[in-house]
Design a protein that fits this description.
Number of strands: 11
Distance between the termini: 31 Å
Shape: globular
Order of helices and strands: HEEEHEHEHHEEHEEHEHHHEHH
Largest sheet: 6 strands, mixed
Helix content: 40-55%
Strand content: 15-25%
Structural class: alpha/beta
Radius of gyration: 20 Å
Length: 253
Amino acid sequence: MEPLEKLDAGLAARVAAKTGISEKYKSLPEVGNVYNVNIEKVIAAHPDLVICYKDMNDKFVHNFEENNIPVIVLEMRTYAQVKNTVSVLGKITGNEAKAEELNKDMDERIAAVREKMPQESKRIAILHSTAQNVTVQLEGSIAGSTAQLLGFTNIAAGSMPLENNSTAAPYSLETLVAANPDIIYITSMGKLETVQDAMLKSISASPAWQSLAAVRSGHVYFLPQELFLLSPGIKYPQAAEYMAKLAYPEKFE
């Protein structure tokens, strides 16, 4: 909804959310949350177009097509996908110039973050932790794409992705120890405090974890879910600055 608002789009209805809904769209009819959309409510809103998110609610495309409602499926995980989405939405709303300006502004803000960083390439690992398991994030993930924008070297680059998730690879403590990254970033799903407590207990109880340079130097960071779980969207520059500031706090004072 954030890029749509920037492009002066008129919405017929919206998903529900506890935060992040602008005043412009607060009074719109709700059609359920993003993970559990109510198809009947969407159809009842008589939209000219339905925008679906890939791998989240594109499974409902046939429902809209059966009701003669045009539908488009977009993806906003990586920065390149976000910029493409902005361009597509610019065409849909008839505001291509504004879309181009929005993409240019994001590019310039990310470039400004890069300019503050030293000319070196930190070797990083990005783990994704849930209550059930841990995976390693690849370049196609949100954090992986952000790290790539910053010029970091992801130690998992080139790893074989999971069969059901092209943005992640299996986690192996042995592989992590062998790679010995300078920084470990951790993204999470679920209650952040619970995930963080479980990860910190594992780290403190494991000699293998304690041998890592990132752990010994205190360079293990938990990334905020509002920027690194679903998609930062047009807040990608904020995500880039957040990650860069953790690596080089003295450059962003």
